[in-house]
Design brief:
Layout lengths: L2 H16 L6 H21 L4 H16 L3 H12 L5 H23 L15
Length: 123
């Protein structure tokens, strides 16, 4: 897929994803697709272009919206190694910090697990 086609596809995918119920399974799936498209654009456009920088930010943001915080952090780390503008680098770092903080909050407020008592009997 060429860059023009990717841009049309990601625009349609974003509009679709944003129209779904936030946090729903459908919305998370739609945002995963947006992230995949943004990753493709970032690979084609390169880091030294505005379009490439926007795509990198979009991939991280869409991963977060998809609830895939680990992927968001991984992408941010990878993209921070690229030659980016100071503004894009700062925004990526901010998104990375936000995703890491959300993962820490989720770990602390995870589901309560209560022990269940049972007795094993020989068959």
């Amino acid at each position: 897929m060429g860059l023009d086609e990717l841009n049309r596809s990601v625009t349609s995918a974003i509009l679709r994803a944003e129209g779904l119920v936030p946090g729903s399974w459908e919305a998370e799936r739609a945002f995963r697709y947006v992230a995949e498209l943004e990753e493709e654009i970032s690979a084609v456009a390169g880091a030294n272009t505005v379009q490439g920088e926007v795509a990198r930010l979009g991939a991280v943001t869409a991963s977060m919206s998809a609830g895939d915080l680990v992927r968001a952090v991984q992408l941010a780390e990878r993209y921070l190694a690229d030659a980016l503008s100071d503004r894009s680098r700062a925004k990526l770092k901010e998104l990375q910090d936000e995703a890491e903080a959300e993962m820490a909050r989720a770990a602390l407020s995870g589901p309560n697990v209560e022990p269940v008592m049972f007795t094993l009997r020989a068959a």
